[in-house]
Amino acid sequence: MRALRLLRAAPAEQRERGSVAVFTVVFAVAVIFLTALIVDGGIAMNAKERAADIAEQAARAAAGNINVAGLRAGGVAAIGPGACGLAANLVSSYSQQDSSGVDRVTGATMTSCVATAGTETATVAVTITTQPLVAGILGSFTETARETATAECGIARGAIC
Fold it and tell me: What are residue 150's DSSP bridge partners?
């Protein structure tokens, strides 16, 4: 009889009402959400770094378009015509790359290019569009990263571009 009494339900004051289970579920959801926010922060930092990289490469492409005839005639290494077209082609090739991986980049566009023929400096601005993980789940949300880079053509600090 005593064994039966032990198996019976505890009095109402001593019953566990599932509060630990509720806490565990709420805590697990919070941890998953915070982890996703950390991943989104990493995606945003990666997009900014990638935008800077693409802008630097495009500025180098524009500055590398040297006017060969002018160089041979006068010995001046200056940017030739069509430099911004080369930069735009480079940015376009980056935007067409598959980036379905971790970085989640959905587009790359050149927002401005200043590489006047006859000068020695090319400045390119690039915008990268990414889709964050958490906001992507909640709907169609994009985040942008903008970077500008300048490359100089000619003899600078003892080196030729």
Answer: 123
Q: What is the pLDDT of residues 94-106, one digit of tens each?
A: 877 766 666 677 8
Burial class (CB in 10 A: 0-12, 13-18, 19+), 119: middle
Query: How many CB atoms neighbour CB 23 within 10 A?
Result: 10
pTM over 0.85: no
Angstrom distance (rounded) from CA 125 to CA 103: 20
Instruction: Please calculate the CA angle 36-40-43 and round it to the nearest 5 degrees.
Output: 140
How many Å apart are CA 111 and CA 47, to the nearest integer? 16
> Side chain identity at 89, as an amino acid letter?
N
